[in-house]
Specification:
The chain has 619 residues and is α+β, with helices and mostly antiparallel strands. The protein folds into three domains: 61-174, Potassium Channel Kv1.1, Chain A (2-Layer Sandwich); 195-318, Alpha Horseshoe (Serine Threonine Protein Phosphatase 5, Tetratricopeptide repeat), CATH 1.25.40.420; 326-611, Kelch-type beta propeller (Neuraminidase), CATH 2.120.10. The protein contains 17 helices and 35 strands. The strands form eleven sheets. A four-stranded antiparallel β-sheet has the order 10-9-6-35, with no helix packed on it. A four-stranded antiparallel β-sheet has the order 11-12-13-14, with no helix packed on it. A hairpin with a 4-residue loop joins strand 13 and strand 14. It is flat. Residues 8-25 have a biased composition (Polar residues). This is Kelch-like protein diablo.
Amino acid sequence: MAGMLHPTGSSVVVGTDGNLPSSSLHYHRQRRPSGDSDSTSGGEPSKETSDEYHFEEHSHPKEVLRGLNELRKENHFCDVTLSVDNVKFPAHRNVLASFSPYFKAMFTSKLAESRQSVVVVNGVEPAMMSLLLEYAYTSSLTITRANVQSLLSAANLLQILPVRDAACSFLEWHMDTTNCVGIHCFAETHACTVLQERARQFTLQNFSEVGNGEEFLGLSPSKVVEFISSDDLVVDREESVFQVVMRWFMHSPEPRKIEFHRVLEHVRLPLISPYFLHDCVESMPIIRQSPECRHLVEEAKMFHLLPDRRTQISTPRTKLRNNSSTVTVIVAVGGEDDKVVLRSVECYDPITRHWRTLACLPFAVSKHGLVASGSNRLYLAGGEFPDGSASHSMWRYDPVLNVWHEMAPMLIPRSELGLAMLDGFVYAVGGWEGTYRLDSVERYDPETNSWELVPPMKMAVTSPAVVAHDGMLYVTDGDGIELVERFDPRTNTWTHLAPMLIPRSGSAACVLDGYIYVVGGWHASTENTNKVERYDIQTNTWEFRASMIERRYRPGIAVLHGRIFVLGGEEGWDRYHDTIECYFPETDSWQTFGDLPTSRSWLSCVPLQVNKNIQCDES
């Protein structure tokens, strides 16, 4: 976790007897033949100038930490002892201050602890202090189900944010319907806002199951209200919300009856069936005995009895919940499984980690382009048929009806193309026509169901990774080059941008938090790669991020819930992945996140809202 050290400056010449010359100091520049380097140093030379030579030893930070850790274990040069529940931990003040703002503030202030040789640390378990000291001196530790909560609490107290964030990610990876409420409350207590929100969303998305679990029964009235008042609460019927609230109330009725009407206010009784309202709601003793509750029932009755006056009794309780019948999923379309071209269309819910089948493509296709529109429609263009010919077809998927509609064909057949949605237009970029690479770009207008050519790219490419962001179209890599071009539709011009760090082909790209991520693909010097690069649009620079777990050529990619999901892809010659990896940007880490129904590459993936109860006609 420590930053790389960069020693710079001129060299001091030492006398032959090991001492500095008495007369003066001289600075010398060592010349060496081109290509000659010190193979024993383990470092890397950089650009040599006439006055200085920059040297960098990559193992130096690790070796310094290793040496400091040995000194700590042998109690050499330790200048402070931490006392945690009477367990003593010798340490070095400078190490503690460098990895923990808590200790830095303690040792650099005028507090008594800054001068004490033994410092008492409260609120931390000895085992957790041992783990955190191990992390301070080695940059690594092991998080388990048994220690994660205590470790997060300790890291939060001592302001060791990387460990706190890693513990948050661990809790998120292990979140399910039996623990999400507890994780939400725990994260709220420790001000872990990202984890708190993730757990809240998970609870809302799986409320029917979570609400019937044990954790929910122990919530305070205000916390129950926080969940059931949300427009994003996902339930099949509002009756389910009422049943969860009654189960919660009956778990401890005496202390809860005073606040019950404040909870019932957030159940949308007007959206409940009038039969359920009469047979189940009104019959509850707590409702019959409370004037406030009876008033809420009367309001719901009026809503049903006088539909022409519903606008006059419009309240938050009459508002339909968002996504009550839909769910946001990752749709995976087509691809190749061991050279067999697929026509399957499936959707994956990262919350439940379940797959469902959608309406198949009208034909088997791979090497196609796929994009989702702002109106929640899919567009599929081009691709390669099983006979190897390129397609110019364009199809639109309607998730409401679960059907594919044929649209106007592209002007030029394209396989291995890039497809992106920009300002309401679908852009088809580059690709393979059947006999040659394409530099042409065309765009589709959904309003007129027609295509038109726009200015071509500066270079013809196949298998580019294309994304749209902030009114611009970005084209990266293709054909094993580090190409990056940007198209501005306002001026109809293309501009070269900073090249990627490694040339690629068959990679996948997406936009997350304003950055462009490019993952996987084929790299000429290493074959298929797992390397990940991120482009900063503001500074026009690229940087490496954490590599994926597996090498993946032509994977599918989608962004959902603030995460990057990479699906399938090819490991090597004729070896296809069926795994899914998920990228967590706050910890710059990847985690295996499930499996595809079948292994494949050349698939395309996009996020889309679909009906939970969608029925597929396998025609």
